[in-house]
């Protein structure tokens, strides 16, 4: 019912405010109509039933035109609907606007929001499941109430209301008592009938007899008499609506169900047999043709509606599918051959075949129906011999013969009459006077449309499938597919064949549309056209920043502006469809003084400065093809040098900005005077230096200091966090010839430069190739800098930024104490009184990291002493809250991220809602995605009802708001682990694996000598088979080196809760039927033999007890056919056969690994008396055993083992551990969890599906009487 989740919804007919989303998307206009030229309707969440009915009414031209004839003088004006004294008939006005939008506005979809608002509906009605048959009656009632007092007050009555009469005929005096009823639609039965005409035959031709003990009291005879009750149609409406009773109630099971059996309905049919015969109407007045079929897909508790509609006015453009065009000629040739054979068989009737004789007799009858008693006489006239002499000996009586061929003959009127039954769509035409007949008695071409499968009707009209926003062309033969199944016809709409359309209406959607609505549509189309033109221009316009070479110089491995005050960047807006040569010419025109060659090179700002990458050499390609996008940087130069220095381009020469540390010498200051001096008293001076990524380490050392100096790289050690010493590794001589890129050095990495004589100080010590830098005891501090709120004046903000202070701290000090000390020393208590503030770190790129948890110590928070913290405005997250970054639509970058603090118990959907509110975005078509390791938009958060904690969203994670709803189900990404038996045993893996044993580290399972290791992901359609999944698993690198002859040598387990749950069986079963969800985890096991488990087979682990000991022999696999006998008796018999014993000499029990206990399986059956009903044996797969794949079954041989206890020493130790854990929980005042809750849950009979109570549908209508 929810349609396509990734559907791009356009704007409705009424103006709506576009969302403030991603640039280029918030102003995107709705797309124009496609080739079909018909407009769909958006689904508001659960309004597919309304959409199907609205499309049916739209393609009912007479209804549409009658509604358009009502002008504003009768209906009022929508602009006055809020005025209390004005009587505005809102519902018909909104219908007029919606119809004109669907007919004339150049959009692919229209919205019913204004219409449902006029109904008085809220979000509950728009998102809830409702019945289209009920809506049809309620909507027509609302329209009749809305049109009271207008010229259209009888609109619904004239077009849709008919009359039927119920009659009781007294068999004694002939008195007829009748009662007339008005109907809006005919509700016909589906259960027990083959099609529509048989149902109508039972309703209006069959008579109900009052006789025997069920007599009728005649008002004229004044006594109980025999009588016949019947019903007939008296007045036929122009449009006949038929509702099919597909939903019934099973009183035995006390539940509703849907009738999915075959139910045939014709394209055209004649209602004369079902009407009163005294009417002298021509035959054409009884003839109806089908023009709409509303289809329901799903069950009785929910589903989806769409509609097949015949385009009466030929407003759409129909194109036959390619496959249908290819097979049409072949099908026609086959039908011609069949027709020739059929004609030959009809010309000669074999008198020796009674089936041919009886078929020929019935086909020559005018009524196609004969009394069974008269059939024998007609056969004797045909063959010259009675049935008893010619056929009885071989075929039995004539009645028995008719019953033996139900596909040819149909017995009606309690078996007294026989008629030909339509054996299929291509068989002989039945009569309209009997059930199973087609359209009319004269074999009209209309009758054969559904049978021949032609794609076009005789009147040139075509059929379309209108499924919410989607409109597709179909052929008439596609209607046959809706005869039966879960997706089948639910409502049928017929129109009289005498209702012809005027020539000027054909192909003219504006026919009889009021002028004021046409003008409104023209204005809307003009706005749409203008928006599309503006969007096309804006979406192809890019802003390019031009960096001119005369304003730059080369320094520290990158380009830098010569003068920071001078504007060295020119921003131009250009059409990306133009060529590189056009851009070059435009730059020449802007720079009149430019001399010589001009090269345009793509550039990018990196931490070291501006770096050049690819030069645009082909002037003929477009900027789009050249990789120039919105916000791109282009460096304009001569292609060789900048300010006399040769500049190397390309990714391999991208500069790296390194932090260089030297020992501080008080009298020398900072050495060369460059960089940022660190005056924090740490004994080290910091400076920032940039080097080309292709430069060798020896080149770096040559630029920094003397060749004999030691160059060291910082090493992270476990003891380095929270203050204390730090370790540095001296680069070995072989690394000196390697480049910075080869050494994986990146921006912000620190290098320590030491002279050999400086190693004698108390700060530095050398041990092997490691240099230890010890922080002086008087330098245990944290520097806290105040970051003011944004929005202040530049002078105030600069003044506030100067507020910084060193706070003495230790690794054990709480961060809350650090903040209090900083507020005191910075004297910010009064200024920040009542204002929430928090402490944050800053990374190497200048980005503020998430606020620290102030209940942690400096060491526990991972903050190193002698570093900086920043006091920022904002709340402090609690231990149950998460601080998240998020951006809208694009991969996050510094300065473009938003920040939010949410509870970790919030669901994905609730978190998304809060982020949308913070970003001031409207609409529901958004979803969240993660950011992957390369800072790009990654996988979506699929389960919107899962909490952030369950979705493994961590503190400080970055999420991206992406427009578009979550992708539809149908494509699975499965996590695959491989079961590895390290001791060569072929036993089934243990089922009580802990979470640690299933990690990607490949930890061994406890006591099993086996392990499960992560080997990769598999992406596959849910319609693929299990065999396809195994085949795709064989392509994983971990399985390519393993000898697997075929997929049959693999066994696939489903993991649930980090434990092996069940074996996937049925190689041809689809993954959807195997109930595999997106993100599911599976474990693949290599077998020594081929395996193809049946659907009822259970793979158990059987272990025989060691006589006289609390131990078992090694377990073995045992395949048990639970489908043959799934009771305890069946398991005992199977194991007795395996071990060569009798069932009475065995004792079985199931192991419960979570509880370390055993559940005995008894083979005893209760003896019951013959008078009592024997109770059905319970299956071991049901309560209380719930036996499944991989369960451990303990076996005791009572002939040699007198110990009937199954508990082992390991079980006793496990039970003791559980008791100790429960005692610890109770002493802490918390209830025991885990096993106890599972025990309680296991006592329940099973999960029950809670459904919301059904609410009656209603439409609010004003009073116009």
Automatic annotation (TrEMBL):
PANTHER family for the chain: UBIQUITIN CARBOXYL-TERMINAL HYDROLASE, UBIQUITIN CARBOXYL-TERMINAL HYDROLASE 40
Location of the USP domain: 39-497
Taxonomy of the source species: Eukaryota, Metazoa, Chordata, Craniata, Vertebrata
Region listing for Disordered, in residue ranges: 1-29, 326-352, 422-460, 1221-1254
Ranges of compositional bias, category Acidic residues: 1-11
Protein name stated in the entry: Ubiquitin specific peptidase 40
Biased composition (Basic and acidic residues): 326-350
One of the protein's GO biological processes: protein deubiquitination
Pfam families in the cross-refs: UBL_USP40, UCH
GO molecular function: cysteine-type deubiquitinase activity
């Amino acid at each position: 019912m929810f349609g396509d989740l990734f559907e791009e919804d356009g704007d409705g007919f009424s103006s709506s405010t576009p969302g403030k989303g991603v640039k280029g998307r918030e102003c995107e206009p709705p797309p124009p109509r496609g080739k079909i030229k018909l407009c769909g309707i958006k689904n508001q969440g659960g309004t597919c039933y309304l959409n199907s009915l609205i499309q049916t009414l739209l393609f009912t031209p007479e209804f549409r035109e009658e509604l358009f004839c009502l002008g504003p003088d009768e209906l009022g004006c929508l602009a006055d609907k809020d005025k209390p004294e004005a009587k505005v008939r809102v519902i018909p006005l909104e219908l007029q606007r919606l119809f004109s939008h669907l007919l004339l506005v150049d959009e692919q979809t229209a919205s019913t929001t204004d219409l449902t608002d006029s109904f008085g509906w809220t979000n509950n009605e728009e998102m809830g499941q409702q019945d289209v048959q009920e809506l049809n009656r309620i909507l027509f009632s609302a329209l009749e109430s809305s049109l009271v007092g207008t010229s259209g007050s009888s609109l619904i009555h004239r077009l849709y209301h008919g009359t039927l009469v119920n009659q009781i005929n007294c068999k004694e005096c002939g008195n007829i008592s009748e009662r007339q009823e008005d109907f809006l639609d005919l509700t016909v039965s589906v259960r027990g009938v083959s099609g529509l005409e048989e149902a109508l035959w039972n309703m209006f031709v069959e008579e109900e007899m009052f006789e025997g003990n069920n007599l009728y009291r005649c008002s004229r005879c004044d006594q109980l008499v025999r009588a016949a009750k019947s019903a007939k149609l008296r007045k036929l409406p122009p449009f006949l609506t038929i509702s099919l009773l597909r939903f019934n109630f099973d009183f035995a099971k006390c539940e509703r169900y849907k009738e999915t059996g075959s139910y045939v309905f014709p394209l055209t049919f004649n209602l004369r047999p079902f009407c009163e015969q005294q009417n002298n109407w021509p035959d054409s007045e009884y003839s109806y043709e089908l023009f709409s079929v509303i289809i329901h897909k799903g069950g009785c508790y929910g589903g989806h509606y769409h509609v097949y509609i015949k385009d009466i006015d030929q407003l759409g453009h129909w194109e036959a599918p390619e496959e249908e065009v290819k097979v049409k000629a072949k099908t026609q040739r086959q039908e011609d051959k069949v027709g020739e054979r059929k004609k030959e068989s009809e010309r000669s009737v074999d008198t020796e075949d009674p089936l041919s004789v009886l078929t020929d007799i019935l086909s020559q009858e005018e009524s196609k129906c004969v009394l069974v008693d008269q059939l024998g006489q007609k056969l004797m006239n045909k063959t010259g011999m009675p049935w008893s002499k010619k056929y009885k000996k071989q075929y039995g009586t004539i009645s028995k013969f008719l019953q033996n061929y139900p596909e040819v003959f149909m017995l009606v009127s309690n078996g007294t009459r026989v008629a030909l039954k339509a054996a299929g769509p291509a068989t002989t035409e039945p009569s309209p006077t009997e059930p199973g007949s087609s359209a009319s008695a004269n074999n009209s071409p209309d009758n054969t449309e559904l049978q021949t499968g032609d794609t076009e009707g005789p009147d040139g009209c075509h059929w379309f499938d209108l499924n919410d926003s989607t409109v597709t062309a179909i052929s008439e033969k596609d209607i046959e597919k809706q005869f039966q199944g879960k997706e089948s016809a639910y409502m049928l709409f017929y129109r009289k064949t005498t209702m012809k359309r005027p020539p000027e209406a054909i192909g003219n959607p504006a026919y009889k549309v009021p002028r004021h609505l046409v003008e409104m549509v023209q204005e809307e189309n003009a706005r749409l056209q203008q928006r599309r033109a503006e969007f096309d221009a804006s979406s192809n316009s890019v802003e390019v920043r031009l960096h001119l070479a005369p304003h730059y110089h080369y320094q520290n491995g990158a380009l830098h502006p010569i003068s920071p005050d001078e504007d060295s960047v020119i921003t131009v807006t250009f059409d990306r469809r133009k060529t590189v040569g056009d851009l070059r010419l435009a730059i020449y025109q802007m720079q009149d003084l430019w001399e010589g060659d001009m090269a345009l090179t793509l550039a990018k700002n990196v931490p070291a400065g501006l770096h050049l990458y690819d030069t645009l050499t082909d002037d003929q390609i477009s900027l789009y093809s050249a990789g120039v996008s919105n916000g791109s940087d282009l460096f304009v130069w001569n292609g060789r040098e900048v300010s006399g220095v040769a500049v190397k381009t390309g990714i391999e020469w991208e500069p790296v900005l390194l932090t260089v540390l030297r020992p501080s010498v008080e009298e020398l200051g900072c050495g060369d005077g460059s960089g940022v001096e660190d005056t924090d008293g740490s004994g080290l001076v910091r400076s920032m230096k940039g080097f080309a990524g292709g430069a060798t380490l020896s080149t770096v050392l040559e630029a920094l200091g003397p060749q004999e100096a030691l160059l060291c790289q910082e090493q992270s050690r476990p003891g380095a966090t929270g203050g204390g010493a730090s370790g540095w590794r001296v680069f070995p001589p072989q690394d000196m010839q390697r480049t910075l890129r080869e050494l994986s050095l990146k921006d912000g990495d620190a290098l320590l430069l030491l002279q050999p004589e400086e190693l004698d100080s108390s700060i530095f010590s050398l041990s092997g190739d490691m240099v230890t830098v010890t922080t002086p005891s008087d330098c245990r501090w944290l520097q806290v800098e105040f970051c003011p709120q944004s929005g202040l004046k530049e002078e105030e903000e600069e003044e506030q930024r100067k507020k910084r202070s060193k706070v003495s701290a230790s690794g054990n000090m709480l961060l809350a104490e650090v903040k209090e000390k900083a507020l005191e020393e910075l004297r910010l208590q009064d200024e920040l009184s009542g204002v929430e503030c928090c402490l944050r770190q800053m990374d190497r790129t200048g980005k503020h990291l998430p606020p620290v948890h102030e209940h942690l110590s400096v060491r526990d928070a991972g903050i190193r002493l002698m570093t900086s913290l920043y006091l920022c405005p904002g709340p402090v997250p609690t231990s149950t809250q998460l601080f998240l970054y998020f951006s809208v639509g694009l991969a996050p970058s510094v300065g473009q991220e938003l920040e939010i603090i949410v509870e970790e118990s919030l669901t994905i959907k609730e978190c998304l809602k809060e982020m949308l509110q913070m970003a001031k975005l409207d609409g529901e078509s958004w979803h969240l995605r993660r950011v992957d390791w390369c800072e790009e938009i990654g996988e979506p958060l699929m389960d919107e009802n899962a909490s952030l904690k369950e979705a493994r969203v961590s503190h400080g994670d970055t999420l991206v708001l992406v427009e578009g709803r979550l992708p539809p189900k149908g494509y699975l990404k499965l996590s695959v682990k491989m079961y590895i038996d390290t001791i060569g045993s072929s036993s089934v893996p243990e089922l009580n694996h802990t979470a640690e044993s299933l990690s990607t580290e490949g930890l061994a399972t406890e006591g099993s000598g086996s392990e499960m290791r992560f080997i990769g992901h598999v992406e596959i359609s849910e319609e693929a088979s299990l065999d396809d999944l195994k085949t795709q698993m064989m392509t994983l690198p971990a399985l390519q080196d393993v000898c697997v002859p075929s997929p049959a040598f693999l066994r696939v387990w489903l993991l649930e809760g980090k434990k092996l749950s069940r074996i996937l069986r049925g190689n041809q079963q689809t993954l959807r039927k195997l109930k595999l969800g997106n993100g599911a985890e599976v474990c693949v096991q290599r077998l020594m033999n081929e395996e193809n488990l049946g659907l009822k087979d259970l793979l158990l682990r059987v272990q025989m007890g060691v006589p006289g000991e609390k131990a078992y022999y090694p377990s073995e696999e045992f395949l048990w056919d639970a489908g043959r006998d799934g009771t305890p008796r069946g398991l005992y018999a199977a194991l007795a056969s395996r071990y060569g014993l009798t069932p009475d000499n065995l004792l079985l029990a199931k192991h419960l690994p979570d509880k370390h206990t055993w559940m005995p399986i008894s083979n005893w059956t209760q003896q019951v008396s013959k008078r009592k009903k024997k109770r059905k044996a319970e299956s071991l797969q049901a309560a209380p055993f719930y036996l499944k794949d991989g369960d451990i079954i303990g076996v005791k041989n009572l002939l040699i083992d007198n110990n009937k206890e199954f508990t082992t020493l390991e079980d006793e130790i496990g039970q003791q551990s559980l008791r100790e854990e429960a005692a610890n929980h109770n002493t802490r005042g918390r209830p025991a969890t885990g096993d106890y809750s599972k025990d309680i849950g296991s006592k329940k009979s099973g999960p029950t599906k809670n459904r919301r109570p059904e609410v009656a549908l209603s439409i609010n209508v004003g009073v116009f009487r």
